[in-house]
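lol forgot to send this yesterday, sorry. struct tokens for the thing we talked abt
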């Protein structure tokens, strides 16, 4: 049985959600995280889901579906369940999550911008309406933190 736990990544973790990921040849933009410099305003509570999986499956998922994101190992203290009926299993100290889009993953490429996944939307690389609709639907369904 797979248990999906809706959670908040608390603003104390120091991140915010922004449209900063571009899938190279496809040219679409998606949500990514952006680290907020310590002492600056702008960090936010971020909605997400936690689910258990074995390392091999996680490796495949992150290598293909989530390609282009830095992986972060976050302390469990930065996560809060959306509802008291949901909680992290006991003994969980850290969780892997997709972080910021990678900047320059390939050092020897002549135009490193081609390999870079961290870009803001442009007219040539827009935010897809269907993706925006999905994000807004989730926000309307789950409301806000605290």
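and heres what i got for the seq, position by position
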């Amino acid at each position: 049985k797979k248990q999906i736990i809706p959670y908040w990544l608390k603003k104390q973790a120091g991140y915010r959600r922004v449209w900063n990921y571009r899938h190279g040849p496809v040219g679409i933009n998606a949500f990514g995280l952006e680290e907020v410099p310590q002492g600056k305003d702008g960090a936010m509570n971020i909605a997400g889901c936690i689910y258990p999986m074995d390392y091999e499956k996680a490796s495949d998922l992150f290598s293909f579906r989530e390609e282009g994101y830095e992986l972060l190992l976050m302390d469990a203290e930065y996560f809060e369940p959306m509802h008291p009926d949901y909680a992290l299993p006991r003994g969980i100290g850290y969780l892997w999550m997709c972080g910021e889009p990678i900047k320059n993953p390939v050092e020897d490429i002549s135009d490193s911008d081609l390999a870079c996944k961290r870009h803001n939307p442009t007219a040539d690389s827009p935010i897809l309406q269907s993706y925006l609709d999905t994000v807004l639907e989730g926000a309307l369904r789950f409301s806000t933190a605290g």
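The longest helix spans residues 129-142. anyway ping me if u want another try
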